[in-house]
Amino acid sequence: EVHLVQSGAEVKKPGESLKISCKGSGYSFSHYWIGWVRQVSGKGLEWMGIIYPDDSDTRDSPSFLGQVTMSVDKSINTVYLQWSSLKASDTAMYYCARLASGISGAIDTDFDYWGQGTLVTVS
Amino acid sequence: QSALTQPASVSGSPGQSITISCSGTISDVGGYNLVSWFQQHPGKAPKLMIYEVSKRPSGVSNRFSGSKSGSTASLTISGLQAEDEADYYCCSYAHINTLVFGGGSKLTVL
Question: Does B34 contact chain A (CB < 8 Å)?
Answer without folding.
Answer: yes
